[in-house]
């Protein structure tokens, strides 16, 4: 496990960007209260999802409006048709952690890689 940040660094309804051994991660505090982590790049265009809007457990790409389910990575609307990698989040003692593999990189929990 690797510590990403404190929960207080991600107010409800916001996103922060993190780099985990060269992998861009968007850490999200959904308006539903949950914490999520997804690959910080839209599967439709190479833009940062961390600049998008949060609603419930979805994140909208700021450029073309595709929304991604933060639990599964699946897009819920065009133009994106491919899911983004999602990462398991563990909240412990006020901090957010992600599991990493032996190579130090986060391992997607939905099996999608980029």
Automatic annotation (TrEMBL):
<dbReference type="Pfam" id="PF00355">
    <property type="entry name" value="Rieske"/>
</dbReference>
<keyword id="KW-0408">Iron</keyword>
<protein>
    <submittedName>
        <fullName>Non-heme iron oxygenase ferredoxin subunit</fullName>
    </submittedName>
</protein>
<dbReference type="InterPro" id="IPR017941">
    <property type="entry name" value="Rieske_2Fe-2S"/>
</dbReference>
<keyword id="KW-0479">Metal-binding</keyword>
<dbReference type="InterPro" id="IPR036922">
    <property type="entry name" value="Rieske_2Fe-2S_sf"/>
</dbReference>
<keyword id="KW-0411">Iron-sulfur</keyword>
<keyword id="KW-0001">2Fe-2S</keyword>
<feature type="domain" description="Rieske">
    <location>
        <begin position="2"/>
        <end position="98"/>
    </location>
</feature>
């Amino acid at each position: 496990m690797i510590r990403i940040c404190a929960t207080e660094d991600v107010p409800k309804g916001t996103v922060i960007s993190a780099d985990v051994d060269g992998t861009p991660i968007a850490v999200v505090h959904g308006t539903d209260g949950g914490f999520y982590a997804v690959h910080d790049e839209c599967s439709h265009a190479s833009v940062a999802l961390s600049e998008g809007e949060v609603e419930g457990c979805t994140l909208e790409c700021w450029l073309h409006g595709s929304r991604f389910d933060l639990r599964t990575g699946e897009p819920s609307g065009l133009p994106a048709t491919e899911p983004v990698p999602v990462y398991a989040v563990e909240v412990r003692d006020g901090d957010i952690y992600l599991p990493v593999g032996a190579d130090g990189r986060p391992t997607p929990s939905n099996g999608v890689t980029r």
